[in-house]
Amino acid sequence: MSGQPAGPRRAFYVRRAGRPLRTGARALLRDLLPKLAVELPPPGVLLDPAALFAAPECPLWLEIGFGAGEHLAWQAARHGEVGLIGAEVFVQGVARLLSRINQAGLTNVRIYRGDAQDLLAALPPSALSRVFILFPDPWPKKRHHKRRIVRRDILDRLAETMCDGAELRLATDDMDYAAWMLERLGAHPAFEWLARGPGDWRARPEDWPPTRYEAKALEQGRQPVYLAFRRRLRGA
Hints:
Blueprint: H1 23-31, H2 33-36, E1 60-64, H3 70-78, E2 83-87, H4 91-104, E3 109-112, H5 116-122, E4 128-134, H6 152-161, E5 162-172, H7 175-186, E6 191-193, H8 199-202, H9 212-219, E7 225-231
Helix pairs in contact: 1-4, 3-4
């Protein structure tokens, strides 16, 4: 099960693989991933999230670009009532998340190995109750800004697939990208910034675990920002 869409493939602006995988990681990709992989339906047909989990009525959360999977596995372990989908194209990251799932015995995680844009296009309206976009590639060069995941067309699709009151969480250690995020989300009519003071974006909430990338940023003197937005009520 590849998890790849049946339609035209997009250009991926990230590495798909790095160093050769160890034997255990290859075994997880071979044996465990097929049981957890999200397969997209044919073009024109929407995905049925309820068919992915044992509890069909569970809330659905999505993490776009889960890296090594620390955050996703942490959330899954503490929210057994929630179904979580992680989208990632980097094979080493997928292998690491599979290891965490295997070690913790998590049953509420599914993995999409492909471009999150294709997954979002296949999700039905109001399917998601929480979305995480944590430390995405900032693509700092101006000519690459079109590759940033936080942009108007993606926000439009998120607004459609998120239910009323759903939360969108973002984090970055790149101040230019932070300003970019705030500008585009602040201009979008579907989203409301939940911050009421500086502490709301300077300090990581208790239910928002640290990641290895965040620790690296702090070691190098870069202070992350933590942004939380709410999907406004439709028609309000």
